[in-house]
Amino acid sequence: MSTTSAAHPVSGNATRNGVFIMLLSMLMFSLNDVMGKWLVASYSVTQLMLIRSLAALVVLSPFLIRRGWRSLIMVDRPWLHGLRALLFAAEASAFYFAVSYMSLADTMTYWLAAPIYVAAASPFLLGEKVGWRRWSAILFGFAGVVVALEPSSESLSLQALIAIAGSAAFAIAILLGRTLRETSDTTLIFWQVTGALIFSGFGLAIQPASWTPVSGQPLMMLCLLGVVAMLAHIFVTRALKLADAATVVPLQYTLLLWAIIFGWAFFGDTPKLTTLTGAGMIVAAGLFIFFREQQIKRRESRAA
Question: Where are the transmembrane segments (predicted)?
Answer without folding.
Answer: 46-65, 85-104, 110-127, 134-150, 156-176, 188-206, 218-236, 248-267, 273-291
